[in-house]
Amino acid sequence: MSRRRERLGLGLLGLVSPVLVLCIWEFASRLGWTNPVLLPSPSQITAALFALMTSGAIAGPLAHTAGLFVAGYVLAVLIGVGIGIAMATSETLYGLLEPLVEIVRPIPKPALVPVLFLFLGIGKATMLTLVVLAAVFPVLISTFQGVRGLDPVLLETARTFQVSRARTIVSIILPASLPMILAGMRVSLGLALVIVILAEMLAGEDGIGFRILDLERSFQVRDMFAWIVVLVAMGGALTKLFDIAERGLVPWRGRS
Amino acid sequence: MRKALVWLGLAMMGLVALPAAPAPAADLEKVRISIIPIGDVAPLFAAVQNGYFREVGLEIDTTPSAGGAAGIPGLVGGSFDIAYGNVVSALLAAQQGLDVKVIAAGTNVTDPKLDATGIFAKSDSGIKSGKDLEGKSIAVNTRNNVIWLYARAWVKATGGDPERVTFKEVPFPQMEDALRQSRVDAAFMVPPFSIVAAQKGGLSKVGMPYSDVQPGVDVGQYITTGKLLAARPDTVKKFVAALRKGIEWYNANLTNEALLTLISGYTKADVALLKLAPVPTAPVRSDISQIRKTMQLMIESKLLPAPLDLDKIVDPLAR
Amino acid sequence: MSAMDGLAGVREKRSSRRSGPNGMDRRAYGFLLLAVLLSFWELSSRAGWIVSAYWPPVSHIFAAAIAQLAGGEILLALASTLRRAAIGYIAASVAGIVLGIVLARNRVLRYGLLPLIEIVRPMPTPAVIPPLILFLGVDDALKIFIVALASFFPIFSNTFTGVAAIDDTLIQTARTFRTSTVRLLARVVFPATLPAIAAGLRTATSLCLVVAVLSEMIAGSSGIGYYLVETQYAMRPDLMYAAVLYLAATGYALNRIFLALEARMVPWMGRS
């Protein structure tokens, strides 16, 4: 496990290579090796980023993207866990839903955009649905697997003691399958981020995804890179948050 | 396990080995062009079909890009030698310091009778002008592009304040549905979508931004980079000459069934659908005074901070 | 077992455990539900409940699907998408497995490269497409690179953590036999990490297809992603939906093929 600590805390030494890369990039730009219209230097991007932050222009799109992400992700987790448990504990529901799940799941979600436009219009409802559709399946499947993989003795015991179904789910099934649920949630986290950006690009009026596409179309490359930096920071922060939450919830489990 | 690995390897090699593109014929210089699969580029395809490019030693390799979004970025990225794109994108690219050159005219709108584009609204909405649209919304395919610019100009020209109108991004194929479901109050549509929408009833054309605002507007052009123009001037000259022959054939065959079959071939649209729209004539030369007017509109809409030197952007070849 | 494979693995175990008359029969309800939904779709379009140029009756879509197959066009589009996905996937697998093993075993390289990888990892793929177009154009180079980029991270992370989790005794034992480093990596570390690598590869399998389609939709010119956009603009929704159908079938088949291969190649892994 000592290796794990190293990985999480590379410390100051870990900064060496990123700083080195930035320096080389900066020099390449200053010496004119790269086309400044296509690839601005780190200092130019930093300046653009600074301008974004001081002018407060960063707030709106960031809030939009973060809001869409949180709403979509939370909904996807709730639905995924709910249906996952339902399908794992009821044969009837399993039989009813399995073919539908197996048909919808492998469809690359971007392909569903025209259908969503038709029924939900172009805007929030479509974006949210897209995020939920993309993020729900990993949670659903791993919840299902987690619950089905539980020790039958555990459930038999609950039945012997005549614990109610709802109670069994809340106090036995849910905690016991939590590690699997979290594994699915981790996969969903990455997917949800990707789809949030995509949804904003396709159906957004605001948000970081919309900004990046808009700036690319008008060839404002510096600001575009500044937004990408914001996005990377946001993605990194969310992943870290998830790590911390997971360690808090399932302390006995290492990173998967 | 080993057997499975071998099979997996073979399957993957099979996929990798699939040919990416047919090899070009010998002795012909290959020119890669980004196009938008709509009627506008019919003269180019006519020139290809009639062998005009082969006659001058060029092999044309077209890459469609829906809506043209990949055109100029792909040109800059080196995927294309020439891109068909709209005038606003070209000027925006030039303003950001990209070295783009207009080398040939593509599409203009001279005859209102042949202008199938238009702003549509529900017939029972009572919307007739830009003034009526204040506080309401208009669907445009992309903000900050040619459609958006002329929708704004039309609102202004018909008594409205464009700042008080919401412009919503809706892809062309979805505009009719958005309009009928009252998700937007008006939509700037182009054929074939505008034609289909008008046919079904319930929607009416309330304005023609191109024809109403700026008759003769140069909407689309063929664009290349200054670097390529300097490095392969003869190639570009040959391309423009062959394209002009294509334009002449096109203008002489506007009502010919063969033209519709040609368009249907690269757009995948049904000939029956294409028959519904009038086929406009294509310009032989770019009109720099028209491009200047567009630039003026862009400055008014704050897309451009200051005028650009159009003599540098529009190459003499195009004029 | 990971979140990316289906309900299938468990189902097999389940039906053997509880092979009553119910097991398969209950799925009939599921297919019945599908049939009801599809008939509802058919009816809504024919009866005019939903009026749109983009809502054709299901029967038209099935007809289009058959016609597409006869024309061969859809197969070409699928093949070109699969080709890009496969090249990107293979490149990502090689890079991900090699880097994962090497970085987990070599401190200097870990300090040099891991921070860079960690920085790029949370970047959503669609966000990098616009800047990449400016460098790589819109051809295969762009699409394959994006597929490789997206597929790399799950493979790398799984390999890396897999190697890190190997029992130290295993390596110490190999060391006492004076095994060379390369041999150690190839004969001891790699096989011991195989289940973890397989999990990463599986996640990447479904990702690579989605990302290939996505890149074709944004910067299109060929492949199934572009076909979806193209048929939309040509007002041929029947062709579009039929293409989605083929795409879903392809995704499903890829997953099943992977599971079958995995079962043969990592036999000791055991399901779940």
Just name the CATH architecture of chain A. Answer: Orthogonal Bundle
Average of the residue pLDDT scores of chain B: 87
Number of helices of chain A: 12
The total count of strands of chain B amounts to: 10
Q: Assign the CATH topology of chain A.
A: MetI-like fold
Average predicted confidence as pLDDT of chain A: 86
- Chain oligomer state: heterotrimer
Taken as a percent bin, the fraction of beta residues of chain B is 15-25%
Number of helices of chain B: 15
Radius of gyration of chain A: 23 Å
Q: Please report the distance between the alpha carbons of the first and last residues of chain B.
A: 67 Å
The total tally of domains of chain B equals 2
The unreliable regions of chain B are 19-24
User: From the helix content, strand content and strand pairing of chain B, which structural class follows?
Assistant: alpha/beta
What is the molecular shape of chain A?
A: elongated
By DSSP, the count of extended strands of chain A is 0
Largest sheet of chain A: none
Describe the protein's architecture and organization:
The complex is a heterotrimer of chains A (256), B (319) and C (272). Chain A is mainly alpha-helical and 256 residues long. Chain A has a single domain, classed as MetI-like (MetI-like fold), CATH 1.10.3720. Chain A has helices at residues 2-8, 13-30, 42-55, 59-89, 91-104, 113-120, 124-148, 152-160, 165-176, 178-203, 208-217, 221-249. Chain A starts with a helix and ends in a 7-residue tail after the last helix. Chain B contains 15 helices and ten strands. Chain B has a five-stranded mixed β-sheet, sandwiched between helices. In chain B, strands 7-6-8-5-9 form a five-stranded mixed β-sheet, with helices on both faces. Chain C has one domain (8-20, 54-269): MetI-like (MetI-like fold), CATH 1.10.3720.10. Residues 11-22 of chain C have low confidence and may be disordered. Chains in contact: A-B, A-C, B-C. Chain A binds chain B through residues 36-38, 114, 117-118, 121-123, 205, 214, 216-221, and chain B through 69, 72-73, 76, 89, 92-93, 95-98, 142-145, 168-171, 173-174, 177-178, 181, 183, 303.
How would the blueprint of this fold be written?
The complex is a heterotrimer of chains A (256), B (319) and C (272).
Chain A: H1 2-8, H2 13-30, H3 42-55, H4 59-89, H5 91-104, H6 113-120, H7 124-148, H8 152-160, H9 165-176, H10 178-203, H11 208-217, H12 221-249
Chain B: H1 2-16, E1 29-35, H2 42-49, H3 52-55, E2 58-64, H4 71-76, E3 82-86, H5 87-95, E4 100-109, E5 118-122, E6 137-140, H6 146-157, E7 166-169, H7 172-180, E8 186-189, H8 193-199, E9 203-207, H9 209-213, E10 217-225, H10 226-231, H11 233-252, H12 257-267, H13 271-275, H14 288-300, H15 310-313
Parallel strand pairs in B: 1-2, 1-3, 6-7, 6-8
Antiparallel strand pairs in B: 3-10, 4-10, 5-8, 5-9
Helix pairs in contact in B: 2-11, 2-12
Chain C: H1 8-17, H2 22-46, H3 58-71, H4 73-105, H5 107-120, H6 125-136, H7 140-164, H8 168-176, H9 181-218, H10 223-233, H11 237-265
